[in-house]
Write a structure and sequence with these properties.
By secondary structure, the chain is mainly alpha-helical. It has a single domain, classed as 434 Repressor (Amino-terminal Domain) (Orthogonal Bundle). The protein is globular and about 35 Å long.
Amino acid sequence: MRVKPQAEKASCVNDFLDLARVRQDMRSDRELAQALQVGSPSVSGWRSGKIHPRPMTCMKLAELAELPLGLVLGNICETFAPTEAEAALWRKLAEQSFPKASA
């Protein structure tokens, strides 16, 4: 079984939440919660690492953060994956979703 510390789980989600707020010029997590069509306690739970956004919410979060869905979903699901094998699958999705820099 694979267990990541709460702080590490929260950090991944917080980066996406913060980017969405910046890119959409939102002043609070309450505004973000409204845009994601969830309650403020959900955003709070994500920030603490106790829970993670569901896939449909990840889709909205990716849109607000102006990032590829695979990158957001892959990184969040990798962080919360129960096994290393599942984490590797999500990691691969995230890596394939991020455009490679040209050499």
